[in-house]
Amino acid sequence: MVGAAPQSPPSVTVPHPRRPGRPGRPLDASDRLRGWYENDLGWPVVPGRPLRLVVGPRFDVLDVPAAAGLAALRHLAPGSPVAAQGGRVRLLTAPGTAQELPGLLDWLEWGSLDLDLTALGEGTLMDAPRVGAEWSLGESPVTSSVTAPAAAPRGEGGPPVAVGRGGSAQGAAVWVRPPGSVRETEASLPTLSALGGGGGAPDLVRVVDTVATHCHRIRLRRVGAQPLAFS
User: End-to-end distance of the chain based on CA atoms, in angstroms?
Assistant: First the structure.
């Protein structure tokens, strides 16, 4: 008796071996800073370089001359983020500030004046400030310098140091007061709703009135320094 022919085993599709992935390059300071903004703070960051933050979803910005911005520090909470670039100071405020600013200036009777005061809101970008660098006020009427507070090492809840300490950051955005944790930062942003309230958020009205006053003083000094024109 002839036995039945042995059946061939079912065909099995064997996947091709995967190519070993390219070893990732070590994270540089910019990568670590991007991770801190995106993962720790939850702030949207524009892809690519230079590193830029999306303004609007998590905060708005008041961009003012250095002297005006530093004068407003007394109205801010200790954890209120403050950045600087060149001779300008950028005060981070609650989302919606850019829309509220024109009406607020009118209410404070500053609306009719040409002030060097700009609000950045939804749809705008700002250079991502670096941490650990010294910022010089440059040609600002204030002649002192401001040094960013020492950043906590990575893993201790603080920002990663993105540049060497003591390096000149003239022209680059740096933190004068870097943000802390997400909760602390959100609670420290100046807001219009703080007016007359019992919360701990800084009062946007006081901040705007202070920076507007100093912007006006700077403007008067500049006008007074111009030579008189005789016909």
Answer: 130
**Is 17 a domain residue?**
no
Residue 3 located in a structural domain: no
Q: Kindly tell me if the per-residue pLDDT of 84 is higher than 50.
A: yes
Instruction: Let me know if residue 106 belongs to a domain.
Output: yes
pTM over 0.90: no
What total of structural domains would you count in the chain?
A: 1
Q: What pLDDT is stored for residue 131 in this prediction?
A: 85
The predicted model gives 112-141 an average pLDDT of: 80
Please answer whether residues 88 and 127 qualify as being in contact, where contact means their C-beta atoms are separated by less than 8 angstroms. Answer: no
pLDDT at 194: 66
Place of tokens 């009062």: 203
Nearest to residue 50, comparing CAs of 147, 125, 133, 134?
125
State how far the Cα of 127 lies from the Cα of 140, in Å rounded to an integer.
Answer: 20
Is 111 within a domain?
Answer: yes
Q: What is the β-pairing status of strands 88-93 and 118-120?
A: unpaired
Helix or strand run (H / E) with residue 218 = helix 204-225
**Helix crossing, 97-107 with 204-225: angle to 10°?**
70
Residue 2 has a pLDDT of: 53
Distance CA 70, CA 198 (A): 25
